[in-house]
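Hi F.,

I've been meaning to write this up properly since the lab meeting, where we talked about keeping a consistent format for the predictions we share between groups. The idea is simple: the sequence comes first, exactly as it goes in, then the structure tokens exactly as they come out, then a line or two of notes. No screenshots and no reformatting. I'm using this chain as the first example so we have something concrete to point to.
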Amino acid sequence: MGQSLHLACGSALVALAWAAWIRAGQPFAVAYWCAVAFPVAHQVFVWLAWRLELRSSLTSRAIGFRGYLVGFFLLFGGRFISLGVPGIYAAYSVQTYFGMIRAAGADHFDARYRQMPLVWEGIFRFTQNGMYVYAFLLFWAIAMGFNE
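Output, unedited:
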């Protein structure tokens, strides 16, 4: 039952990711699906390598433990990169095209900021909410890195 439940939950999460992507207007498809694909690929790689190793030592014979470690850490690292790259681009876009003062909420204190036009450069080409949609990926990447 454990493997079936794991597969069902993983499939449900991918389906939810698909629905969220459709609902959001299909923004930044490559970055979004890389962020989904790396954890899925990592889980499948580990599951397959462990199963093959426990049943027949096939992982050791095919790629060895070092080969397994290379695959493990490449896919594990990809999780951070797939979140970090769009997060860094979003932070750069906020700083460059939007401004940190404006991002901090200047429009609540100064009417001049409320009159400014929307920004359409950088990450804002893909979504009006680049700070909230993509910049927070940096925090998730950091939290994952520290296993929090």
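Notes:
The helical segments are 2-23, 29-56, 58-62, 64-98, 100-103, 111-114, 130-135, 137-145.
Residues 28-145 form one domain.

If this format works for you, I'll send the rest the same way.

G.
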